[in-house]
Write a structure and sequence with these properties.
The chain has 126 residues and is of the alpha+beta class. 36% of the residues lie in helices and 42% in strands. The chain has a single domain, classed as Nuclear Transport Factor 2, Chain: A. The protein has a six-stranded mixed beta sheet. The chain starts with 6 loop residues before the first helix and ends with a helix.
């Protein structure tokens, strides 16, 4: 990350190039990940690494379409496919002192979210 590159821009680049380790390294050790399909947050870099790695396997045709920035964080809007389902979602990034501290993902429609949940569960539970 160069001095003029924001953590959000570096995260976007890491995700778009499939570099899970670079994406995870941008977060604080005690990062909180809020899943679109699990009610309890995941905590820590290792949990985030597993989730992002699985997402890269589950999503196809992934692309960020737009983004929004504000004093409270950064939002990246994306589209992808999960199986035969079109999915739209957002990555909500929160940061403190130039370090990412939280990632919240929201997706729609329900049918795509359900397919995402099932495929992610299969990968993460073995």
């Amino acid at each position: 990350m160069t001095p003029e590159t924001s953590p959000a821009a570096a995260f976007r680049q890491a995700v778009e190039t499939g570099d899970v380790d670079a994406a995870v390294a941008l977060f604080r050790d005690d990062v909180v990940f809020n899943s679109p399909v699990v009610h309890k947050p995941y905590k820590g870099r290792e949990a985030l690494r597993a989730i992002l790695g699985a997402v890269l396997q589950v999503f196809s045709d992934f692309r960020y379409e737009t983004e929004f920035d504000g004093p409270g964080g950064h939002v990246l809007v994306f589209r992808a496919r999960v199986g035969d389902r079109e999915l739209e979602g957002v990555d909500i990034l929160r940061s403190e002192y130039g370090e990412l501290i939280e990632l919240t993902v929201m997706v729609r429609p329900y049918s795509a979210a359900t397919e995402l949940r099932d495929r992610m569960a299969a990968l993460l539970t073995g």
